Structures are given as structure tokens and as C-alpha cells.
Amino acid sequence: MFEAVRNNKRVAQVILAILIVPFAFFGMDAYFSESGSANEAARVGGTSIGAWEFDQALREQQDRLRQDAGGQVDRALLESAELRRAVLENLINQRVLALYAAENRLVVTPQQLQETIAGVPSFQENGSFSLQRYENLLRAQGMTPASFEARLAQDVRVQQIVAAVGDAGIVPKASARRFLDAQLEERSVREFRLSAKALAADVKVDDAQINAYYEANPARFERPARLQAEYLVFDRAAIERGIEVADDAVRAFYDGNPQRFGVAEERQARHILLALDQGAEQAEVDRVMAEARALVEALRADPARFAALAKEKSQDPGSAGNGGDLGFFARGVMVGAFEDAVFGLQKGTIGEPVRSEFGVHIVEVTDIKASSVKPFEAVREEILAELRAQEAGRRFAELAEQFSNTVYEQPDSLQPAAEALGLKTVTTDWISRDSAPAPLADERVLSALFGDEAVQKSRNTEAIEIGNGTLVSARVKAFEPARRLPLEEVRERIVELVRIEQGRVKAASDGEAMLAALRKGEPAAASWGEARKLQRGAPGLPAAAMQAVFSASAETLPAHVGVQSAEGDYVLYRIEAVERAQIGDEDPRVAAVAGQYNQLLAGRDFGAFLSELRQRYEVTVNPATLQVEQR
Q1: Quick check: 206 pLDDT over 50?
Q2: DSSP-based helix, strand, coil % in the chain, nearest 5
Q3: HEC string of 5-64?
Q4: Does the record carry Ubl conjugation as a key word (predicted)?
């Protein structure tokens, strides 16, 4: 019954990711399309990854990054060669895994898909699979059940491969125990800090130093080019705001889609499964059916025994332990013969044995939820929003072209486009390339806005798509070029910077001298802080300090180490005691560490497996795919 996948939370999370954020997962037809094209991103094992496929995956990943960052995402990242490479690498990895799955005839049966889908929490209501919720969620993502199940089947195939490779790693207990010994080692230390800031306060800075610093660091005292801009945003929301939907149309949609707003009948059932192969000999069929009829007679005589007999007799590992209970389900979830039997019984009745592809079932219907229809007023706003969205989708392409043409053909003002499409012009304060608001933060928009056409000729930028079907056009209202700030304006800042630098140098010099004296056994004017215990596996200091403390030899104590902090302070550490944990091989923490270590090995092994597949299937990348477009 495919319980290994059904109960694997990680698999469920991956499946949800396919639904909620579709990215680089495609049906088998897409993987094995033999239609050649000169416009390819890569070729894998003789199959093509088209440029359109790469562009779609790139746009979806860019949109995902924007969403995760709340719109405040680094422009350079979205347009970087590194992101393009990561997207293409992911597509290639998916392709080689698909080829391997096909070559090894990895199969996902319809029943496996049904049970996997039924186990996804997002498709459930009150703990049971809901066909209506499943279809609504797919519809919201623009997918059909067939397309989603094709993607899901491919992902399950990949999970089968991942599990097979990942389970091959073995971590010896001795290695895990040695690692745990090191992680649990404790060192007792005291700290003395030489403050760079305190030392900087005594530094005297003269005019010669100020002038020298100013001339040596011109970029630090340059104000970047800045401008004031006005812009228009055109998207589906802008169209929807201007769409009026008649009440008659809303009512007609409601009346014409009764199944959409109804809740299908659901039934709760329990069963006992006696395994029987579809190609079994007649003698075996007769034997199993006889056993099933005997169980039916026993249960009809004493229905209270159903749960106990299911635990004892049922060969369905997914439900036997729960007394055979399958929860509530609607039509379209279970296999046909079994489903027909369930929906043909009255509540509380035990039916005749029914045979399916899995064996022979003894079925009892324990509860029934009747179908119902939501009232019109309860779904009116939902229908209204959907009809507006549909109409906006129909108008979008035409109006987007009108928006693009208007801002281009009338380049001296955004007002014509705003009036024609009912948009509102937004004006910014002074902004630089690093401080633009979200709609203008796209690198392509900024490149156009700070370009010669916009700055010198005061023309509108072209309509630029910034993701999710959103177009932006902007123009410059005022511009100030980059300029170096005058010395007098930044004098105090330079004085502070020189003091800080010299304070850091002084702290390091004095600290290293004190450390050398302490290591020789000479006295040093250090006022040590309170003793504290540090554990290698639970960092309580910055990484550089932890490395220094635990790298120091503990043969002779006290031992001393020194590190300069990120703030410039020089910190001395006095190691006074070392305690090592006594851990046996049967300590449960050893098993936990071995499990974590095994995950690392599994990741390494899977990476090596992917590398071998990429060599086997001969990957060729079109270098142009990784080139960032110059604007």
C-alpha cells in the first residue's frame, strides 16, 4: 500500500512544494520530447532542455525569491549568472534522474499515487482526503489533476532513487562516539579584552593624516548619482479594479456550477483485506473467498468484533493497526470495485466480500456525510473575484500592449497611459540605485532609469516586466550626478575613521605583546573576567575565538590564546581546565550523531551518484544560457 512514501513527511513536503511553488518538475512527456530545437539551454542523454523551459524555471525561481524576501530582494541576485547556473543545474539533475528512472523501469501505480495524494495534509479536511479541496487547490495553481499527477509520479520516482542511494551509507559507532567526544569536550576559560574604541579615544589626528586619508579613499566619500522619479505600475490588479460584474452574471455562474459549490457525499468505512493476486489460480481464489465469507458471517453475528479481527486478519498495513478504519472519503479516491461497494451499502451494514486488484475486502460503512450546497450569499464574493480575474486575464494581453505602446509612443509623459488605463502616477523622493522602492528595484528598471534616454533626454522608460505579469514604466523628474563630497563636509567622519583604524592597530600590537609574555610565564597586567565553560559543540564565542580556544594544546595549563574581534578589540583567553565526557557505545546520543552523520554521507553519496549519471547521459550546456543579458 506504499506506506513508506505515504508516511514519509519529507516526501509530503516535497509534494506540497510542487503544488505551491512549481519549480523544475515536469511530466514524463516533457522529459522525453524528441523534438529537436536550435534554441536549447542544454542537452542531456540525447534529450533537449529547451530555452523556453529554462526561462520559465528562471522566472518562477525569481518570483519565489521575491515572495520569500517580501519584495526586498537583491537585484544583482535575480540577474546573476550564479542564479542562472543554479536553475539550469537543477533542470539537468531532474532530467538525468528521470532518464535513470525510465531506464530502470521504476513504476508508480495509480494506487500508489492515490494513497500519496490522500496523505497530503493540504488536500485534507478534518483529517480525511477531500476531493473538492484537491481540485480547488489544483485549479488555483492552473493545473489539472492529470498534469499534477504526472509531476507527482516523477517526483515519487526520484524519491525512490534518493531513498535507495541514501540508505546505502553506514556510520560505525566508534566514529560517531569519537565525534561526540570532541563535541562534548568542555574548556573553562577567562577573558581579557583590549578595547580598540578606548585606545582610539587617545589617538591624536592631525591635518596631514586627514588629507592623506581623504586622498587615499576617494570612493568612501562619494555620494552616488541620485534622482527623483515618477512611475506607473500595470498589472492584473489594475485591470480588475476597473471591471464591473453584473449580479446576473454572478448568479448565472453559481447556478451553472452546482458541483463547484457543493460538498460531495463522503463515507467513512473500515475494511479487512485478504491479499489475493490478480492472476491467482482458481483454487486460491476459492480459498480466499471462502475465508472472506466466513468472516462476513462472523461479523454480521457480532459486528463489535470488526476492529479486533481487522488487526488480526487484515493484510493492509496502512489500516490494520487502526481497526481497518479508512476515514472519510468521497468518490474518485478508492479503486472502482471497492468504492462501488462502499457507496452501495447502508450505514452500519457489512457487505458481501468484494474483490479488487489488491485482494478481497470485507467492508463496513460506519458513517455518512450527506452532500450539501453552499448558499449563494456565502460564495458571492468568491464568484465575483473569480469572474473579475477571468475578465482581467482576457483583457490583460491587449491592455498590456496598449500600456507598452502608449509609454513608448508618447515618451514625454506618463499621463496619457495613466488616463487611458485608469492608473495612478507615483512620485519618489531622491533615490539612488541602492535605495529604490520595490517597484523600481528591478535591475532592468534601474538601468533604464539611470540610462541616457531617461536622464539626458527625459523620456519614459519602456514598459519593463518585473515578474508576475507586472509592467513598470518610469521617468526622471530631477537628476544629480555622482559627486565627491568636499573635505570639510566629511572631516569629522575622517577623524573618527583614522582613530578607529589606529585603535585597532594599537589593540592588536598591545594584545600580541601581552600574549607573548603570558606564554613565556611572565606576568601581564590583565584583569581576567569570570570563568566560563565552553563546549565545542555549543559555540559560545565567535567562530575565530572558538577555533583558537579549542585548537590550543591542553598539555600544560593554564594555556593562552589571542584573537582580534570583528570590532577591532584584541581578546585574550586563559584556558584553565579541560573536561572530557565519558561516553559509551550504547549512549543514545551516539545513535543520534550516527544518524546525522549518515545524512551527511547520504548527501555526499547522492551527489556522487548524480555526478556519475551526468557522465553516463552526456550533459552539454549552451554557454549562452548562463550569460547575463547586458542592458
Answers
A1: yes
A2: 50, 15, 30
A3: HHCCHHHHHHHHHHHHCCCCCCCHHHHCCCCCCCCEEEEECCEEEEHHHHHHHHHHHHHH
A4: no
Contact 1, 273 (CB under 8 A): no
Res 2 pLDDT > 70: no
Which of 1, 15, 318 lies closest to 159 in space, CA to CA? Answer: 15
Q: What is the spatial distance between Cα 559 and Cα 353, in angstroms, rounded to a whole number?
A: 80
CA-to-CA distance for 252 and 158, rounded, in angstroms?
Answer: 45
241 and 422 Cβ atoms separated by less than 8 Å: yes
Q: Is 71 left (phi over 0), alpha (psi -120 to 50) or beta?
A: left
H or E segment to which residue 151 belongs:
helix 145-166
DSSP letter assigned to residue 538: B
CA dist list (Å): 544 to 508, 548, 551, 557, 564: 15, 6, 10, 21, 9
With a CB cutoff of 8 Å and minimum separation 6, the contacts of 577 are 187, 188, 557
Q: Give the Cα separation of 289 and 282 in Å (integer).
A: 10
Q: How far apart are CA 92 and CA 99, in angstroms?
A: 11
The upper half-sphere exposure of residue 303, i.e. CA atoms within 13 Å in the direction of its Cβ, equals 11
Q: How far is the C-alpha of 596 from the C-alpha of 192, rounded, in Å?
A: 37
Contact present, 503 and 158 (Cβ < 8 Å): no
With beta carbons less than 8 A apart as the criterion, state whether 311 and 323 touch: yes
Are 49 and 43 within 8 A, CB to CB? yes
Q: Which three cell numbers stand for residue 556?
A: 600544560
Beta strands in 110-200 (DSSP E): 124-125, 128-129, 186-194
Mean model confidence pLDDT for the chain: 84
Most confident of 232-246, 404-418, 526-540, 606-620: 404-418
* Helices of type H across 370-414: 376-409
Q: Which three cell numbers stand for residue 278?
A: 490478480
Question: Is 24 within 8 Å of 151 (Cβ atoms)?
Answer: no
Place of cell 475465508: 291
* DSSP characters over 456-524: TS-PPPPPEE-STT-EEEEEEEEEE--EEPPHHHHHHHHHHHHHHHHHHHHHHHHHHHHHHHHHTT---
Widest CA span in the chain: 106
Task: List Cβ neighbours of 611 (8 Å cut-off, separation of 6 or more).
Answer: none
| Residue 560 bridge partners (DSSP) | 574
**Among 132, 116, 113, residue whose Cα is nearest residue 329:** 132
Higher pLDDT, 603 or 5: 603
Give the mean pLDDT of 254-263: 80
Name the burial class of residue 81, with classes exposed (0-12), middle (13-18) and buried (19+) by CB atoms within 10 angstroms of its CB. Answer: exposed
Over residues 287-322, the pLDDT tens digits come to: 999 999 999 999 999 999 999 999 999 998 878 888
* Locus of grid cell 523620456: 459
CA torsion 67-70-76-79 (nearest 10°) is 20
> Which one-letter DSSP state was computed for residue 224?
P
Higher-confidence position of 599 and 90: 90
| Cβ pair 485, 223 in contact under 8 A | yes
